[in-house]
Amino acid sequence: MTRGLLGAALALLAATGCAAGPSYRRPALDLPEAFRGQPAPQETSFADLPWWDVFQDPQLVALLREALQASPSVATAAARVEQARATAGIAKDQLLPALGVQVWPSYQQVFSPVRIPGLSATRTPYASYLAQGTVSWELDLFGRLRRLREAALAEYLASEEAARGVTVSLVSDVARSYFQLMALDVQLEVARRSVASRQDTLALFRAQERGGVASGLQTASGEALLADAEATIPGIEQLITVVENRISILCGRAPGPVARGDLVGRPAPPDPPLGLPGTLLARRPDLRQAEAGLVASNAQIGAALARFYPSLTVSANGGYQSSTTSSLLTSGAAIFGIGAIVNWLVPVLQGYQAKHQTDAARANWDALVATYRGALLNALGEVSTAFGALQRIRFQRDRLEAEVRARTEAVRLARIQFSAGVASYLDVVQAEQVLLPAELQLAEATGAQFAAYAELYRALGGGWQAPTGAGPPAQADAAPPPAP
Q1: Is residue 376 part of a domain?
Q2: Which residue has the higher pLDDT, 85 or 449?
Q3: 454 in a structural domain
Q4: In this predicted structure, what is the pLDDT of residue 350?
Q5: Neighbours of 2 (CB within 10 A)
Q6: CB neighbour class for 109 (10 Å; exposed up to 12, middle 13-18, buried from 19)
Q7: CATH code (residue 254)
Q8: 351-367 pLDDT, tens per residue?
Q9: Side-chain half-sphere of 324: how many Cα atoms within 13 Å?
Q10: Which of 57, 347, 382, 463: disulfide with 168, CB 3.0–4.6 Å?
């Protein structure tokens, strides 16, 4: 009879091998043909390139490698991945039979004040020794355990995507801070050059005042201009310290100086291809993480639906039991047993518990679908905003470069006219006075242009590739992994 029961259970398992609940399908999404501001759809995207090919700056590449190896945020994300991996392993192990071993001696005394046939009225000791093995296996007839395993694996994939998201943000943050730091270096150099020029001007004014060819008003104006130029230096130096500290912390080390290149003479970043909007679903880690959450939620619906069906657990045990250790391992002390438990929580008697769990799982799915679509809209907006900023800053930088060239030429001509005696030195001072803010704005716009380039790379989902050796790998894995 036992063999017949086990055979029937295995036959039922084969007949109902499919898991309860719907199979996962990606929700319908309304994707545009091209990003806003994009002239025409493009098949390729510069976000498919690894970061060491996008940011071809030796100092920046070294900083990024250091950050990816030592950043606390990366270490935290890696630990979360290992935690999710272990959780997925627990869900997988639930599909396997549970094995156990039981070995124990027991000793008890029975005292009866009333005489019972076969027993004395005094304390009587009883000893028992047991050694047996047990096996228990829940046959996953309707896929509840498989759905739970599917959900755990999806959550593990979501943790991996979260770790990739940390990498993408870290690469972008370090790169944008690096370009900001180089722009501040240029601004500091401009401010110091302006201070030196105004010191020379003030010295000339004082000499003219002593010679009686200039008034004290001219000297006082020169002193005010010098003080104004000197006042800009501490603020720039403080910003440099702040940005250096930020980069150091991102790299996982104590605040300190940061090695960097020179922004002067660096060519503008190219106008990058964006690719198709649909590629964001397979490239951006936050969207891949959100979709992995949808896969897990869909599996949870199947696991909840499986509670409407009965579960079957088969168990067996075998071993030896005796009242003495000398006869424990004999044929007469052998024991064995086999059984099956059918468990079915009838919804009516359980207060619709299974129905309520299913309704909660479906509601969670609806919420995650809305979150997924919102994340996609946010990603499209980030790409459009970053691309528009890059285009506008490119135009702004071109205009500022033209302004600086014109104002530099004005300063040169004013000096020539002053030397020829056809212009006053006040004309030189006025020309230099308007040159300083133009040069500062140009330096800021140049750094912002490279920072916008890095932000666009992040918005498109680039930057999760990480080399493991001392330098960029010979063959960089530039293609994103498959979607969940």
Answers
A1: yes
A2: 449
A3: yes
A4: 59
A5: 12
A6: exposed
A7: 1.20.1600.10
A8: 467 777 888 888 988 89
A9: 4
A10: 463
Residues 169 and 71: their CA atoms lie apart, in Å, by 12
Structure tokens at 481: 């992994």
What pLDDT, in 10s, does the model give residues 378-397? 999 999 999 999 999 999 99
Tokens linked to 270: 């190219």
266-273: Cβ within 8 A, 24+ apart: 266/446, 266/450, 268/394, 268/397, 268/449, 269/390, 269/449, 269/450, 269/453, 271/394, 272/45, 272/46, 272/453, 272/456, 272/457, 273/42, 273/44, 273/45, 273/46
Question: Residue 224: CB partners within 8 Å, gap ≥ 6?
Answer: none
For the residues of 267-313, what is the DSSP string, one character each? Answer: PPPP---B--GGGHHHH-HHHHHHHHHHHHHHHHHHHHHHTTS-EEE
Question: Does residue 322 belong to any structural domain of this protein?
Answer: no
Specify if 126 maps to a domain: no
- How far apart CA 303 and CA 297 sit, in angstroms, is 10
Both tokens of residue 467? 């080399």
Give the chain's domain count. 1
- Percentage helix, strand, coil for the chain under 3-state DSSP, each rounded to 5: 60, 10, 30
For residue 98, give the H/E element and its range. Answer: strand 98-110
Res 159 pLDDT > 60: yes
